[in-house]
Every structure is written in structure tokens, then in C-alpha cells.
Specification:
Shape: globular
Structural class: alpha+beta
Helix content: 40-55%
Number of domains: 1
Number of strands: 4
Order of helices and strands: HHHEHHEEE
Strand order of the largest sheet: 1-4-3-2
Oligomer: single chain
Radius of gyration: 17 Å
Length: about 190
């Protein structure tokens, strides 16, 4: 196995560049309470800046799944679509139930959350439908034509007890040079 293959095997999910840009633009629109501009904020952005935001989203997905695994300890598998709706706040959107589905901005946010779930499932499928993290395992399974995430918590790891989602507070700006970061909003 080459070094690049090993690194790729160990690396956690990272959203696509296109989805990352959409999430940041939507996040910025929610944070500043304005419509998404037709003019992208990204044409002048360097690839290195996008990678920073991708890593941040990746870290938030990882933390969210760890928290979800702790909350759902010894419960049934969760529908992927239902699981990822909980990511709304961690992406800087309003809570999923508060997103206005009658507005264009709300529909775009819901689509971005769905796309994030799909990209994660595709990544997990390429890994054999399984990912082993220090806190436990996550599997993708299909039941009755629906896709589910199943968690198996590693009860030997420190801090395995069920926990609440860590969504409170506001993170500092991620990127200098005018590229907005992902804000945690308090809607």
C-alpha cells in the first residue's frame, strides 16, 4: 500500500468543494440575515482557503456523529436524512425545524443538508459502508429501501457516556482575507 493510499484510508470524510462553497454562502446569508447573492464570494478565493472550510465542516460532521452515537447508544439505526437534519445548527443554519421551507433560502439550506448526507453516504459506501473512529463504529445499512446509519459505541474509550449535541456558542472566523467562516448562529 502506498503512503497516499494509507493517508486516504485514514482520512475522514471531506465534503466536495462545490458543496463547501454553497454551505458557506448559505451560512453567510443566514448569519447576516440576507438573501444569497447571485454573485459568488468565491472567485477570488484560493484553494487553501476552501480546504480550511472543508476541514471545519468535516470536523463538525465527525463531532456530530460522535455525539449522535453517544445519544443513540443501544438504540435502533437512524435514517440518514433524519440524522443529518441535526447538522443544521453546526453548519450555521437555523435549527432544521425553524428553516422556512417556503423561502428560497430555506429550500437551498435543506438541499445543502441533503447533499451533505448524500456525499457522506457515498464516501462511507466507498469505504465498504463502515468507518471506525476512536469513539466507535458507524455503518451504513439499507432497510426497506431506506438508508440508515448504525452506530456501535466503543465503551472502552474515555467519555463514552451518552451526551448532548455540542452546538452552543459561536466559533471565531475561520479564514482571513475576506472569506467568511462558518458561524454558529443562535436562532
Amino acid at each position: 500500500m502506498s503512503v497516499n493510499n494509507l493517508i486516504s484510508e485514514l482520512q475522514f470524510f471531506r465534503p466536495s468543494e462545490e458543496l463547501t462553497k454553497r454551505i458557506v454562502e448559505l451560512n453567510d446569508a443566514f448569519f447576516h440575515d440576507r438573501a444569497v447573492s447571485r454573485k459568488s464570494i468565491f472567485p477570488r478565493v484560493r484553494r487553501k482557503q476552501v480546504l480550511k472550510v472543508q476541514r471545519t465542516i468535516s470536523e463538525r460532521v465527525y463531532r456530530f456523529l460522535a455525539s449522535t452515537a453517544r445519544q443513540s447508544y443501544q438504540t435502533q439505526p437512524m435514517r440518514v436524512s433524519e440524522c443529518f437534519t441535526g447538522m443544521a445548527i453546526m453548519l450555521g443554519f437555523p435549527p432544521f425545524a425553524a428553516i422556512d421551507k417556503t423561502q428560497h433560502l430555506g429550500n437551498r439550506a435543506i438541499q445543502a443538508i441533503d447533499d451533505l448526507a448524500c456525499e457522506f453516504c457515498d464516501w462511507l459506501a466507498r469505504r465498504g459502508c463502515f468507518y471506525q473512529a476512536p469513539w466507535g463504529d458507524v455503518r451504513i445499512i439499507t432497510l426497506n429501501d431506506e438508508t440508515y446509519l448504525e452506530f456501535e459505541l466503543n465503551t472502552e474509550s474515555p467519555g463514552w457516556e451518552p451526551q448532548e449535541h455540542e452546538t452552543e456558542g459561536r466559533l471565531p472566523e475561520l479564514i482571513a482575507d475576506g472569506l467568511p467562516g462558518l458561524h454558529l448562529t443562535s436562532h
